[in-house]
């Protein structure tokens, strides 16, 4: 009987010891997908109407933006991965994913990224890939890139007429960096993250944009562009 007990105990010890000795792979696959929503619905271009936070009717026609400087961090151990050459042009009618490939394994609990193009890259126009000036995101009259582009038509609540809306936000002061908390990222395990870009946030918090009351519905520079940048600084792109 004692032999049976000893055998069982030895087997249990060996099993737990074996579990402890499982080697975590040095690298892990990670990709990020992005979803675009407006008015609580999946974004669609050129046809469907949405209601803005102001209550105004809006039909989006173009939506593009840059995500750059993607980094992952374990806030406890300090382990960090920074994606090299990290510039991604995301658009509703184009690319909506970021493949980080094989990255160092860690229990990452923070994701950091920027909205826009950093000052160094923003001062060049001889670049390729997502920073190719022919991507329709470079200013055609000056060096630099548009960070966030939204175009469409809305119904003016005062006149009842349809008007165009052009939001092209760029320039270095409007570059923003965001950090989001992560859960469920396990060292050595392939991971897929989903981010949600909520267009409602471009029009509120902390600055409410009532399109029908604006002096101009072409927003590119100055105080109004800064207000849009403040709006996309927090709550615009979040981990789902």
Write structural notes for this entry.
- With 240 residues, this protein is mainly β.
- The chain has one domain (26-239).
- Helix content is 14%, strand content 39%.
- It contains three helices and 14 strands.
- Strands 3, 4, 5, 6, 8, 9, 10, 11 and 13 form a nine-stranded mixed sheet that branches. Strands 1, 2, 7, 12 and 14 form a five-stranded mixed sheet that branches.
- A hairpin with a 5-residue loop joins strand 3 and strand 4.
- The chain is globular and about 70 Å long.
- The model is unreliable at 1-19 (pLDDT under 50).
Mean pLDDT: 91
Largest sheet: 9 strands, mixed
Radius of gyration: 23 Å
Number of strands: 14
Work out the helix count: 3
**Structural class by secondary-structure content:** mainly beta
Q: Given the C-alpha coordinates, what overall shape results? A: globular
Determine the strand fraction and express it as a percent band.
35-45%
Helix content: 10-25%
Task: Report, as a whole number of angstroms, the end-to-end distance.
Answer: 55 Å
Instruction: Indicate how many domains the architecture comprises.
Output: 1
What is the succession of H and E elements? HEEEEEEEEHEEEEEHE
Which spans of ≥5 residues are poorly predicted at pLDDT below 50? 1-19
């Amino acid at each position: 009987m004692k032999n049976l007990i000893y055998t069982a105990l030895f087997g249990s010890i060996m099993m737990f010891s074996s579990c402890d000795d499982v080697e975590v792979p040095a690298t892990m696959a990670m990709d990020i997908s992005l979803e675009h929503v407006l008015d609580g619905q999946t974004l669609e271009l050129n046809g469907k109407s949405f209601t803005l936070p102001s209550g105004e009717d809006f039909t989006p026609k173009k939506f593009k933006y840059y995500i750059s400087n993607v980094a992952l961090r374990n806030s406890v151990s300090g382990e960090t991965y920074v994606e090299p050459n990290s510039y991604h042009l995301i658009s509703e009618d184009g690319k909506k994913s970021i493949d980080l490939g094989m990255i160092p394994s860690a229990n990452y609990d923070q994701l950091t990224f920027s909205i826009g193009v950093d000052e160094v890259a923003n001062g060049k126009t001889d670049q390729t890939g997502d920073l190719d000036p022919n991507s329709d995101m470079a200013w055609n009259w000056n060096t630099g890139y548009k960070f966030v582009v939204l175009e469409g038509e809305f119904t003016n609540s005062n006149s009842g007429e349809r008007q165009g809306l052009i939001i092209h936000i760029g320039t270095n002061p409007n570059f923003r960096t965001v950090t989001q908390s992560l859960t469920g990222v396990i060292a050595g395990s392939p991971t897929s993250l989903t981010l949600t870009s909520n267009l409602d946030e471009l029009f509120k918090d902390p600055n409410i944009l009532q399109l029908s009351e604006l002096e101009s519905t072409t927003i590119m520079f100055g105080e109004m562009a800064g207000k849009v940048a403040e709006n996309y600084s927090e709550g615009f792109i979040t981990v789902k």
